[in-house]
Amino acid sequence: MKISFWILSALTGWISGIVSLFGWSFLWPKIIPMTDRASALPGYWKVLLFIMVLITPIALIGGIVGGRLPREGGKREQFLYAMVFGALLTLVFGSCGFWYSGW
């Protein structure tokens, strides 16, 4: 397998992971009710940026793992798997980050 394919699948996983985490960050406060602790928490965008920075290596790893699955239909399906694995790993660890930050 070429290195360029690995880099492209890692970037595909990263982009899908960051987009899904960004969307989930706006749904998170509406789904899980929380008390009003706004004065004790850092700003909304600071927490989101911090979690996105922490999640970046996990999203890249998810893209690489998804791109390395056995090929059944060609490169299009490999990129689809890279997107799915990147988004899944990002959402799992991102939700843990949101919960841990108290956001």
What's the structural blueprint in terms of helices and strands?
Elements: H1 3-31, H2 44-67, H3 75-101
Describe this structure in words.
The protein is mainly α and 103 residues long. It has one domain. The chain contains 3 helices and no strands. It starts with a helix and ends with a helix.
How would you classify the helix and strand content by structural class? mainly alpha
Q: Percent of residues in beta strands?
A: under 5%
- The number of distinct helices, counting runs of at least 4 residues, comes to 3
- Succession of helices and strands: HHH
Mean pLDDT: 81
| CA-CA gap between termini | 41 Å
Number of strands: 0
> Helicity range of the residues?
over 70%
Number of domains: 1
Give the key terms:
about 100 residues; about 0% strand; elongated; mainly alpha; 3 helices; about 80% helix
Quick structural gist:
The protein is an all-alpha fold and 103 residues long.
